[in-house]
What we know:
8-stranded parallel barrel, alpha/beta, TIM Barrel, 13% strand
Amino acid sequence: MQLNLKNMNHFDIFLRLHHSEKPLLLANVWDVSSARVFEKNGFKAAGTSSRALAQVHGYEDGEKIPFELVLHTVKEIVAHIQIPLSVDMETGYGLTNAAIIQNIEKLHDLGAVGINLEDSILAEPGKLKPADQFQKTISSIRNHLEKKNMRLFINARTDTFLHKLPSMLEETIRRIVLYEQAGADGIFVPFIQDPVHLKTVVQATKLPVNIVCTAKLCDIAQLSASGVKRISMGSAFHRYLTAMMEISAQTILSQQSYKSLF
């Protein structure tokens, strides 16, 4: 069934794309140019890649880039595309729920329709926040958005598989149930690799499940059959382009010619 997205605002479009028969193929972007390329070629929604966005500005991933620069980039992208944009805000760029909510309001006011928020502890690599603590963060955000009548898609990310925690499947299910209860709109489980694990996760929640493509899980038809509703590319596209640039640069030097560019 073809989705009719005409005369719908960006949030409604974004929400509908998570509940259609085919999974949402999210274009992960880092500037206006990249967003325009994906939009021109038929992608229905975009999301910032925190790693790519940081690296093009000379920073490493992990909230090293100033949040004001993230805001500036989001503002520029939204102004130049006609498809919905979600923002990967990592752990929220704030140490308290109040600070995170303040940042979310700024993104909403710029026109972002959604956020990714993860349960990792950036200061302690490989560790996650206690599940009940992150659940309270999501609940605080949801309650604030409803009080302010602000519509924003909360994609709750758990990094259980990223950090390869003990009993990661069981811990993933425990966490996503809590995050769903707290008011999340979607569940994001990056770097899950086993198709059986993936199906188990999908069956454990009523929310649309988002994964990031990997070499082992990259076939869209297979992922769709597993029940996945959103497939991100993370920083893969940016890393691919960077690798191609390196090859091209080496070719120019080795051939002592710019002919390869043409």
